TrEMBL record:
It comes from the Bacteria. This is Carbon-nitrogen hydrolase. It comes from Pseudomonas fluorescens. Signal peptide: none annotated. PANTHER family: BETA-UREIDOPROPIONASE (PTHR43674:SF2), NITRILASE C965.09-RELATED (PTHR43674). Keywords: Hydrolase. One of its GO terms (molecular function) is N-carbamoylputrescine amidase activity.
Amino acid sequence: MTALTLAAAQSISIAGDLAGNIARHQLFLQVAAEQGVQLLVFPELSLTGYERGLAAQLAVAPDAAVLQPLRDFAKEVGVTAVVGMPIRLTDTSPVLIGAMILGADGSLAVYSKQHLHPGEEVVFAPGAGGEPLTIGVDTIALSVCADFNHADHAALAALKGAGIYAAGVLVTEKGYDPDTALLQGYAAGHSMVVLMANHGGATGGWESAGRSAVWASDGSLIAAASGTGNLMVVARRNPAGWTGEVLAVELE
């Protein structure tokens, strides 16, 4: 069993403040690098907050210059990051809920949310998903929030050979128990490690439950945050199996 370190970045987003959120993401990336994290997953729309009313004006192309400093920083510290952002693939295309994969090698890939939550269709169009990413010997499939409410989404990820299913989400207290029951079920049912990165605080008028978590491929819990706040849930695999811990991330 090869070594691997994954983490869920339970970050609190500043509404509509791309520059401020990039700075916060860089702080999370710095902590992740210090912990030897290879893949760091942020919540849904982490770079803007879950701000549907602002999404159209904030949407950018995935390779936009405004995001280059964050891409450069991920490469500098050697951590692959999955960050949330409203995106347009062309100047005239609809707005998508994007999860951009900023590679530790400087590469860029895009996953777009396929299944919209009721009400999101007013602002966003359904996306096309994206190919799994590879870190070492591991294949990681991505999900953005409501995608995982569709059982075939996780089943297809497993069919494509994913051993890890990583979801950036916004989950409230009301939705937390049923949603995490689904994710834990996918872990056990498909023999996949499942990671959930939830917002660390209120965003877009919703009160996030926090409590980001990682489950092992038998459905057992590796680690989970106990509540809200700027936290990092770290899961480490070594020859003896998985271990986890939760770290506070101090923002300057």
